[in-house]
Structure formats: structure tokens, C-alpha cells
């Protein structure tokens, strides 16, 4: 606006090579270059404008999303974008749309659960978007309990077809994104019934709408489920409701990689585990962890830049007031979130590796790492999305009153992000899955079966159950070994305590239900250990760039010590550390905040977000916040007229009446 960089002084304070950090954040030089190029392309294209979103009504908003999706697809084809570039384009366009479910769930479901033949038939159509698909699992009556779904797929051997039916109101499909108004097809989950026998939930490809005029096919009732939380936000998505009235589909539209139904109606299972039916959820949960780091870093970037611009109190001798970022309370709320964004980035990278590894193993019929992949994706999805949703809201509060304005970008970011705590598995339900996995691991400890992967720390259970931290000075908390031992012994002791308590119940399921709150806490401790240990592992790698490693070490320590402080009840009650050591951790944390403070702006610059993507006046790169806020206010439709619509109808009569009363 005035061409001045109001954050230049802050940028000059940085003690590390920001460009090198940008590459660490992106994952590689190649990833950085793709991301940088595509983000600028999107920002420069008026077709991807998004600042008017909170003002639009639902119909306008939705049509606008349809336009953007079609335009994005056109640009992807015109520019011959690769899959990686197209995914980046979607990311920077920053608008939830039916395409997410098509590419993110419908296609992966066919890839993961379809036979070779089915993939050959359906994927080319889906890749060209000649059909558009959704993921139709959740129903009005059941989401978490997938085994409780009620939609039926009954095999009719006379016609070699399945009859898809919604027998009750609660069996109506409810929530699938893209279903409400767009999808022509869906992978629909239904109970498979052959010869009167119920074989549980399986996936079926079902055509929902005509490819000629988009009208629902006979027997199908479909629509949108209505407005969701927040203006704009997730209302760009057509989450849908769907009912089937004896809809017939050919037998070969059951996804048959895991189990098959023969022409005669015989049900057969392959030697792949039936849990592969849940495979698409494992894939998406893994992507959600990486996405958590993006959403949190975006909020943190806004709050950090604004905290450096905003001044309140502390003027001395008529000089400038203090920047709010210099208040220790602000740092204590903001810097752990900055550290968390980096921590989630690295654990997301690792989880992607784990997922790729398990997928390659599955292709060679090695299913041994599937339980761990399920536990890791479920647990990390839960812990990172909870922290991110809470973190975005904290960033809004860190921006004071201006954070509540839509132009801060934070209300919409929160409203779009918060359902991540629920979709792809309610976060508590997912932690209970982790807890089951942990209880199984503990119960096998005496059997000679060596725990592997993320539970390998349990292999030293005798040591972890009795060790005492040897931290004596605050700086001792900077040793990765001190941090790891504290987190490992906390996690191990909480799991073992739950396992011991479970033995007091004659019925293990009753015990599990009764102790579920403790089990969830043990699962959180285990997941936090994974995140801390993956951050520490990252630091063992070669990290080029002046001062980059030092900054990452500081952030890693902030992440770990902040968690230690927040959960000190766990660490103290399990006897892993003493009250004195907890207090030393806090001293060290304060000193780390001072170390990060001069680098804070550069650390958020390293995310390399454009002003378009941030969508926030408070977070704009040049920090020129006040003129922009002032100007934006005048653009609000309410300011289109000086005297508001409704004055003559509702204000004037009131004022006149008051006048008469006053004269009396
Ligand atoms: C405008 C812009 C336009 C741009 C255009 C650009 C176009 C092109 C761009 C291309 C770019 C691509 C972009 C892609 C974007 C991707 C983004 C994706 C976005 C996603 C949005 C999300 C939307 C939301 C979707 C959903 O929510 S789908 C529904 C999800 N539902 C759930 O998660 C339900 C949760 N419940 C469960 O998972 C299970 O029921 C349960 C696990 C809780 C319990 O199940 P069950 O009762 O059967 O199980 P048990 O507890 O008895 O366990 C049995 C054993 O099975 C194991 N188990 C359980 N689950 C799994 C699993 N998933 N995997 C492996 N094993 C599993 C248990 O551990 C038990 O094992 P054991 O017997 O050994 O103990
Ligand atoms: C924005 C959005 C998009 C979605 N998109 C899709 C989609 O594309 N396709 C699709 O199929 N679905 C979709 N869903 C549905 C989503 O997957 C489910 O809402 C989610 O899995 C949670 O299930 P639920 O709604 O049944 O919650 P419930 O299970 O009813 O949860 C209600 C409460 O009960 C608690 N609870 C439930 N079970 C237990 C238990 N065993 N122990 C302790 N506590 C428990 C939960 O913690 C929660 O507090 C979407 C949902 C949202 C919000």
C-alpha cells in the first residue's frame, strides 16, 4: 500500500538463513520450487479470488465454488500440470469442494479396494472427471460405528445384481461431501447380504445421477444437508443426504479386492485382511496430519506478524509502546504453537513415509505393519487436529479484537478446520483405537514378542518403569536423551497402569469402557512421544543453511518442554520427574522463548505463504495493518449507503416516537 516493509526491522533480526529454512519446511528444493511457483500462479489469477466468501449467500457461494473448480480443472489441463502441481493448486486455491472427495476418497477407495479389472474400468473415467464420485459411508444414525451401518446390498442371483436399499430413516446416507448436488457416482458402504446371510459392511460403486441431465436415477433421493458452522467456510461443500429405494446395480460394482460374490451368490474372502475395507480412511488420516501443519502454520503466521505490529502499553519517555510479541504471556501462548506447526510438519512427513511403506508391503501380501499404520494414522490425526483447532482459536485471541473480524482470516480458517476433529473419525473414538493397540502391545510384553516401530520403546519396559530423570540444571533439559526418557517413561507407565487396572475387571470390554478416559490419556501420551521423537530424528539429518539447525533445535525443545509443562500432572504422578525438574523445564522454556523471539518473523516467513493464501489483513507480509483494516471496512456492503436500508421503515419511526414521548 505504502510500499514500505513495516516488518523490515524484525526481518533484519533473524539469525538464520530463511531461504534454507523454506526448503526444510517444503521438504526438498523441488517441493519448494513447485509450491512457490503454484502459489504465485494462484495468487495472481483473479479467477481464484476468495476475499468475498464470507459475504456470499449459500447459493452464490456454492455456484462460485463450482465455477472455481471448473476453472481450476481447465488451468490444470491447459498448463499440463503434474499430479503434484495439481494438488498444490488445490491447496492454494484454498476452498473445500466436491473435487476433494472425488480425488481424495472416491479414487483412492477404488484404487485400494477394487480389483485390477475394476480399476481399469473406473479409474480412467474418474481421472478425466467424466464421472464425479463421493465417499458414501456415514449415515444419519451411524458414523463412528461403521459396523452399525444399515444400508443393505442384497444379492439377487436371478439377475446377477445387488439391490441397494435404505430400510430405515437412520440408514439415510448423511454427510458425504460432494454428494448433495454434484456427484454422479459414489462408493457406497452397505451391508452385504447373500442368501439371507449378512456379511457386514462392504463398498459398492453406485451411479447416482444421470450423465445426461444430472437428474437422480430412479429409486434415488438425494440433496444437501444444509448450512454448516461459519460464514463461507465449509459451506462451499455440498455435504449430502441420500436414500435408496431398491436400486439395482450389476454384481461387478461391488469392490472385490477384499471379498467377492460369485455368479452363484457364493461369498468368498481373499487372504487380505477385512480391515482393508477401512483402507481409504487410513490414507486420508495420513494426509490430514500433514494438513494440520499447514492450517496451524497459517494461523501462527498471521498471529506472529500481527503481534510484532501491534503495540500496547509500556511507552517510556514518549517513545513507542511495547510490541505485544514482547510480552512473555504472548510468547508463552504463541511460540509453542509455532513449534507445534514445525513438529506436525515433520511427523506428517514421517507418516507419509510409513503409509507408503505399508502400501508397498500390502502389494506383496505383507500385512504385518497394518495395525501399527492404523494406530499411528488414527492417533496422530487425533492429536494434531485437536491441537490445530485449539491453536487456530488461540491465534484469534492472540490478535485481540481485530482477530474477530473476518478480514483477519482467522474466523473462517477455524470454521473450515474444526470439523477435522470429527471427520475421518471422531478424535476420541480414534484415540480409543490407539489405546486398544497399546493394551495389546503391553499384554504381549511377557510373551517374548519384541515390540517394533513406534512401540519399540516398550522393549525396555523394566528400565522405563523405574528410571528417574537425572536432570539437575535447566540446560540439562536441552539433551534429547533427557527429553526422550521422560516422554517414553511417561507413556509406558500410563499404558502399563491402564493394563494393570484392566486386569481388575472380569469382563475386559466392561473394563475398557470404565477406564476409557484414562486410556485416552495414555494414547495421547504415546502419540506425543511419537511427535517429539520424530522431531528429534529430523535433527539427526543433514540440515544445511546458516543457523537453521539451531532454530529447529530450539523449536523442538519448546515443543517438548511445553508439553511437559502442560501435562506435568502425568509426568509427576507417574514419578518420571520431580517437581524441581518440572520447574527447571519451565525455566528452560522461558529462555528458549528469548532465543526464538528475534527469529519469530523469519520463522513464519519460512512458510512462504502468499498474502492471497493467508487471506488476512493482520498477517500481510508488509505488516501495514492499520490502513488496510481501515480501507477494508469501507468496502463492507453495509457501507454502500450512508443511511442504511431500513432507516425509513424501522429507525425513523422510532426516533419520531421518542420525540413525541420526550415532548410529553
Ligand atoms: C475449488 C477448488 C477446486 C480445485 C480443483 C482441483 C482439482 C484437482 C486436484 C487434485 C488434487 C487432489 C486433492 C486431494 C485432496 C484430499 C483431501 C481429502 C479431504 C478429505 C476431506 C474429509 C472429508 C471427510 C470424510 C469422512 O469423514 S469419511 C467417513 C470417515 N469415518 C470414520 O472415520 C469412521 C470412524 N470409525 C472407524 O474407523 C471404525 O469403525 C472404528 C475403527 C472406530 C471401529 O471399527 P470396528 O468396530 O470395525 O473395529 P474394531 O474396533 O472392532 O476393530 C477391529 C479390528 O480392525 C482394526 N481396525 C480398525 N480400523 C482399521 C483401519 N482403518 N485400518 C486397519 N485396521 C483397522 C482394529 O484395530 C481391530 O484390530 P484387532 O482386531 O487386531 O484389534
Ligand atoms: C464436515 C464433515 C464432512 C464429512 N464428510 C464425510 C464424507 O465425505 N463421507 C462420509 O461418509 N462421512 C463424512 N462425514 C462424517 C464423519 O465421518 C462422521 O461424522 C464422523 O466419523 C463422526 O461420527 P458421528 O458423527 O457418528 O459421531 P458420533 O460417533 O455420534 O459422536 C458423538 C459423540 O459420541 C462420542 N462417542 C462415539 N462413540 C464412542 C465410543 N465408542 N466411546 C466413547 N465415545 C464415543 C464421540 O466422541 C462424540 O463425542 C463428515 C463429517 C463432517 C463433520
From TrEMBL:
Q: What is an example of a GO molecular function annotated in this UniProt entry?
A: FAD binding
State the active site: 424 (proton acceptor)
Query: InterPro entries under this entry?
Result: ACOX_C_alpha1 (IPR055060), Acyl-CoA_ox_N (IPR029320), Acyl-CoA_Oxase/DH_mid-dom_sf (IPR046373), Acyl-CoA_oxidase (IPR012258), Acyl-CoA_oxidase_C (IPR002655), AcylCo_DH-like_C (IPR036250), AcylCoA_DH/ox_N_sf (IPR037069), AcylCoA_DH/oxidase_NM_dom_sf (IPR009100)
Q: Which residues form the Acyl-CoA oxidase C-alpha1 domain?
A: 278-439
Q: Which residues bind FAD?
A: 138, 177
What the entry lists under Pfam families is as follows: ACOX (PF01756), ACOX_C_alpha1 (PF22924), Acyl-CoA_ox_N (PF14749)
Provide the cofactor list for this protein.
FAD
| GO CC entries | peroxisome
Q: Where in the cell is it found?
A: Peroxisome
Report whether Oxidoreductase shows up as a keyword of the record.
Answer: yes
Q: Which residues form the Acyl-coenzyme A oxidase N-terminal domain?
A: 17-132
Q: Which GO terms describe its biological process?
A: fatty acid beta-oxidation using acyl-CoA oxidase; lipid homeostasis; long-chain fatty acid metabolic process
Signal peptide limits: none
The Acyl-CoA oxidase C-terminal domain sits at 480-656
Entry similarity comment: Belongs to the acyl-CoA oxidase family.
The identity of this protein, by name, is Acyl-coenzyme A oxidase
Amino acid at each position: 500500500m505504502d510500499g514500505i516493509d513495516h516488518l523490515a526491522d524484525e526481518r533484519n533480526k533473524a539469525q538464520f538463513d530463511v531461504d534454507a529454512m523454506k526448503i526444510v519446511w517444503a521438504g526438498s528444493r523441488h517441493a519448494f520450487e513447485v509450491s512457490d511457483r503454484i502459489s504465485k500462479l494462484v495468487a495472481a489469477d483473479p479467477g481464484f479470488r476468495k476475499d468475498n466468501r464470507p459475504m456470499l449467500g449459500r447459493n452464490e457461494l456454492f455456484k462460485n465454488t463450482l465455477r472455481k473448480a471448473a476453472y481450476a480443472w481447465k488451468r490444470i489441463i491447459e498448463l499440463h500440470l503434474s499430479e503434484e502441481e495439481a494438488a498444490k493448486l488445490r491447496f492454494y486455491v484454498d476452498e473445500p469442494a466436491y473435487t476433494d472427495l472425488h480425488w481424495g476418497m472416491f479414487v483412492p477407495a477404488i484404487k485400494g479396494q477394487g480389483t485390477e479389472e475394476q480399476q481399469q474400468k473406473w479409474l480412467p473415467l474418474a481421472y478425466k472427471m467424466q464421472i464425479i464420485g463421493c465417499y458414501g459411508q456415514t449415515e444419519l444414525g451411524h458414523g463412528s460405528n461403521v459396523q452399525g451401518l444399515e444400508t443393505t446390498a442384497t444379492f439377487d442371483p436371478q439377475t446377477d445384481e445387488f439391490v441397494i436399499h435404505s430400510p430405515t430413516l437412520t440408514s439415510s446416507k448423511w454427510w458425504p461431501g460432494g454428494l448433495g448436488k454434484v456427484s454422479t457416482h459414489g462408493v457406497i458402504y452397505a451391508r452385504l447380504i447373500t442368501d439371507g446371510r449378512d456379511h457386514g459392511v462392504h463398498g459398492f460403486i453406485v451411479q447416482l445421477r444421470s450423465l445426461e441431465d444430472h437428474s437422480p436415477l430412479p429409486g434415488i433421493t438425494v440433496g444437501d444437508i444444509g448450512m454448516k458452522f461459519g460464514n463461507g467456510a465449509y459451506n462451499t461443500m455440498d455435504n449430502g443426504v441420500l436414500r435408496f429405494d431398491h436400486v439395482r446395480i450389476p454384481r461387478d460394482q461391488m469392490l472385490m479386492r477384499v471379498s467377492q460374490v460369485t455368479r452363484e451368490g457364493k461369498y468368498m474372502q481373499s487372504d487380505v485382511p477385512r480391515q482393508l475395507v477401512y483402507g481409504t480412511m487410513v490414507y486420508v488420516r495420513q494426509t490430514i496430519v500433514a494438513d494440520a501443519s499447514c492450517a496451524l502454520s497459517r494461523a501462527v503466521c498471521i498471529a506472529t506478524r500481527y503481534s510484532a505490529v501491534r503495540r500496547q502499553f509500556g511507552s517510556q519517555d514518549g517513545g513507542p509502546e511495547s510490541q505485544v510479541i514482547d510480552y512473555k504471556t504472548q510468547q508463552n501462548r504463541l511460540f509453542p504453537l509455532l513449534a507445534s506447526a514445525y513438529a506436525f510438519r515433520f511427523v506428517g512427513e514421517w507418516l507419509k513415509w510409513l503409509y507408503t511403506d505399508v502400501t508397498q508391503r500390502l502389494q506383496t501380501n505383507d500385512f504385518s505393519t497394518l495395525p501399527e499404520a492404523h494406530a499411528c494414522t488414527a492417533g496422530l490425526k487425533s492429536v494434531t487436529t485437536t491441537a490445530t483447532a485449539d491453536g487456530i482459536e488461540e491465534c484469534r485471541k492472540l490478535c485481540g479484537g481485530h482477530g474477530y473480524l473476518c478480514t483477519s482470516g482467522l474466523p473462517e480458517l477455524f470454521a473450515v478446520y474444526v470439523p477435522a476433529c470429527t471427520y475421518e473419525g471422531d478424535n476420541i473414538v480414534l484415540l480409543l483405537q490407539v489405546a486398544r493397540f497399546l493394551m495389546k502391545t503391553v499384554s504381549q510384553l511377557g510373551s517374548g514378542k519384541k515390540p517394533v516401530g513406534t512401540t519399540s520403546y516398550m522393549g525396555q519396559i523394566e528400565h522405563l518403569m523405574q528410571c528417574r530423570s537425572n536432570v539437575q540444571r535447566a540446560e540439562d533439559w536441552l539433551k534429547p536423551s533427557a527429553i526422550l526418557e521422560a516422554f517414553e517413561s511417561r507413556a509406558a507407565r500410563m499404558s502399563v497402569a491402564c493394563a494393570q487396572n484392566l486386569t481388575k475387571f472380569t469382563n475386559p470390554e466392561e473394563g475398557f469402557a470404565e477406564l476409557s478416559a484414562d486410556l485416552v490419556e495414555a494414547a495421547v501420551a504415546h502419540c506425543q512421544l511419537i511427535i517429539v521423537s520424530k522431531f528429534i530424528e529430523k535433527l539427526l539429518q543433514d540440515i544445511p543453511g546458516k543457523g537453521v539447525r539451531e532454530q529447529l533445535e530450539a523449536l523442538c525443545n519448546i515443543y517438548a518442554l511445553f508439553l511437559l509443562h502442560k501435562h506435568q500432572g502425568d509426568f509427576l504422578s507417574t514419578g518420571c520427574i520431580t517437581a524441581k525438574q518440572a520447574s527447571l523445564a519451565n525455566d528452560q522454556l522461558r529462555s528458549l522463548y528469548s532465543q526464538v523471539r528475534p527469529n519469530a518473523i523469519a520463522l513464519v516467513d519460512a512458510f512462504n505463504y502468499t498474502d492471497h493464501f493467508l487471506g488476512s489483513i493482520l498477517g500481510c507480509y508488509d505488516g501495514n495493518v492499520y490502513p488496510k483494516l481501515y480501507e477494508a471496512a469501507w468496502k463492507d456492503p453495509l457501507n454502500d449507503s450512508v443511511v442504511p436500508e431500513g432507516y425509513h421503515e424501522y429507525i425513523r419511526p422510532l426516533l419520531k416516537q421518542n420525540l413525541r414521548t420526550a415532548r410529553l
